[in-house]
Design a protein that fits this description.
single chain; 95 residues; alpha+beta; SH3 type barrels; 5-stranded antiparallel β-sheet; 20% helix; 28% strand; globular
Length: 95
């Protein structure tokens, strides 16, 4: 996916506790997300949810989140600054 492209969570294939935590921080099926930064050396992904919540997601957790291209929620677009280096997660989040 190109930089600054939005994506929508299509499936979360993780254990119940992680699914509950992700839902509590605003990541669940149907949510629009953006990746703000990718940690070096396989570090965490800094993501922003459609509610404006920013958090770091460990790559092992991110691998359990399936995504598809999506439209940016207006709140995400308003919160995104032109100086940010945004890149969406791929379906496998491998990089």
């Amino acid at each position: 996916m190109p930089l600054r492209a939005p994506f929508r969570v299509s499936q979360v294939g993780l254990d119940r506790e992680l699914v509950a935590w992700l839902k509590a921080v605003g990541i669940e099926e149907g949510t629009t997300l953006e990746v703000l930064r990718r940690g070096i050396f396989g570090g965490p992904l800094h993501v922003r949810t459609s509610l404006g919540c920013e958090l770091a997601v460990h790559r092992a957790i991110a691998k359990g989140i399936r995504v598809e291209k999506g439209e940016v929620d207006a709140r995400v677009a308003a919160a995104s600054g032109p100086d940010l280096d945004l890149a969406p997660l791929s379906a496998s989040t491998a990089a």
